[in-house]
Amino acid sequence: MKREVAIIGYGALKIGKYPEKSDNELAIESIRLSLEDSGVPKDDVDGLFTTPNYLDRMGLQLSTIAEYMRVSPKSMAEISCGGTAAGLTIKYAMNEILLGNIDIAVCYGTETRRSMIEGYYKGKITNMFEPTTQPHISGGTIWAYACSARRYMHEYHAKEEHFAMAAVRDREAATKNPYAYFRTPITVDDVLNSTILCTPIKLLDSSAARDGAAAVVLASKDKARRFSDAPVYLRAVGEHHDNSLFVPTDRRDKSISSFTATKEAAKDAFKMAKCKSNDIDIAEIYAPFSPQELIIPEDLGFFTRGGMIKAIQDGSTEIGGEIPINTDGGLLSRGHPAMITPFYESISIIRQLRGEAGKNQVEGAEIGLMHCEGGMLNNCMVFIFQRG
Amino acid sequence: MEKRNFRHPQIFHSTEKFWLGLRDRKFLVQRCKNCEEIFFPPRSHCPKCLYNEMDWVELSGKGTLYSWSEIHIPSRNFDVPYVIGIIDLEEGVGRMVSKIRARVEDLRIDMPMKIDYEDAEEDLTLYVWMPAQS
């Protein structure tokens, strides 16, 4: 029998602020919740995979957790690759299961203000950029997304209102998601009148870093059948890098109003899952700023180029629409613990496919797509999940 | 306290000539001695063939404005707001990120731009781009 992989459990803390808890405590709590949800005893976990946590500079984070919960995995890895790290732990676990090396894996991660400030933000963020870019930059990575937004406005006649509508859609979903951090309703005018960060991006067009911890349990089909009534099968993973670092500096035929890596990753994922974009019932996309909420669905093939401008106005991407996107608030309103956001995105899809999404439930959702990215969409991953 | 309005870039032996060129008001890029690819930004190896010996050639310092943003986020190092842009180089060798010297109301996507130079500190000169008509 062909080996297949399913996600059979998840655990996540509400995104928020946890200054009184250590990162290890947060990690253990999310793992405990995920094992409880899956019904898997901890001794059956034979793979343990995590995202980088720069508080632990010796790379012994997994040893700490293995000791903490007294498990002896036969496969473990801390995987670092920018924003796709959490997605890569899932891919790594999936491959280990497909190879037959392990049967059950837990992928988890934490991100806290502590880990961000003391870990990678302290002096390191500017060094992400190409040296000729470094002298000119302040304020993190927003400038790049802002330039992407401006180019998209130029090419497709998008207005700032259209970006604001995506932020409002996300917030509307978040008001009904108990796990989301930003739950106060907002209007398009609120977004347009919020503090300017990097034109045309304003405060309410932006995601905000918050603390979080999340875990998912993956299992081979055999084990999934034994432990779970509602396995969610991992049908495909596509991954691509566009050989750029933030802005494509090497050639002028590359775009920032459309992202090659997303398009290519989606193409590979659809091929592997033997499906098309119109077979997808729901999607989670990794858009740290509202303009990319318009660009990415076009790259995934849900709409033609520039087509999201109409779609954001006519409700096509809302719950009940043609392709509901970010049904629990997205990065903008759920909160964005950067390194582990893809876990929260996956959990959002799993909850939908298991029919547990409450007031945000998309009726009959069977196939879900999860997109995540690193850099400015320079490396992208697209996952396709299917209800078992 | 007066702000520096720049950050010191990472400069390596392989890229030093680029930064020295700016001091002489020259915009130098590399040409691979093996495959003749002309490329920006400067680096130790040719991105096309990975050969590690390069000549330096001077570009016109002309280009067009691919996109831009006005940065308002308060910063320890920079007076805000200031404009950052992406320039498409005229010779087609690529794009570069740069501070832009212009009023935002004068900026149009794809407008012609030209390079200028600013001495940041004694031995560091940086480029800035501005509308070609100014």
Q: Tell me what portion of residues of chain B adopts beta-strand conformation.
A: 35-45%
The CATH topology of the largest domain in chain B turns out to be OB fold (Dihydrolipoamide Acetyltransferase, E2P)
- Which structural category fits the helices and strands of chain A? alpha/beta
List unreliable stretches of 5+ residues of chain A. none
In which range does the helix fraction of chain B lie?
Answer: under 10%
Number of helices of chain A: 13
Q: State the total count of DSSP E strands of chain B.
A: 8
Number of strands of chain A: 11
Mind summarizing the main beta sheet of chain A?
Answer: 9 strands, mixed
Radius of gyration of chain A: 20 Å
Question: Under the CATH scheme, which class of the largest domain in chain B?
Answer: Mainly Beta
- CATH architecture label of the largest domain in chain B: Beta Barrel
CATH class bucket of the domain at 5-120 and 211-219 in chain A: Alpha Beta
CATH superfamily caption of the domain at 5-120 and 211-219 in chain A: Thiolase/Chalcone synthase
Q: What pair of chains forms the biggest interface?
A: A-B, 37 and 43 residues
Low-confidence stretches of chain B: none
> How does CATH name the architecture of the domain at 5-120 and 211-219 in chain A?
3-Layer(aba) Sandwich
CATH topology of the domain at 5-120 and 211-219 in chain A: Peroxisomal Thiolase, Chain A, domain 1
Helix content of chain A: 25-40%
Number of domains of chain B: 2
Strand order of the largest sheet of chain A: 3-2-4-7-1-8-11-10-9
Topology:
The complex is a heterodimer of chains A (388) and B (134).
Chain A: E1 5-12, H1 23-38, E2 47-50, H2 61-69, E3 75-78, H3 85-98, E4 104-111, H4 113-121, H5 142-156, H6 160-174, H7 188-192, E5 196-198, E6 201-202, E7 212-220, H8 221-227, E8 232-241, H9 260-273, E9 282-284, H10 290-299, H11 308-314, H12 330-334, H13 341-353, E10 367-374, E11 379-387
Chain B: H1 16-23, E1 28-32, E2 38-39, E3 54-58, E4 62-71, E5 82-89, E6 95-100, E7 112-121, E8 124-131
Antiparallel strand pairs in B: 1-2, 1-3, 4-5, 4-7, 5-6, 7-8
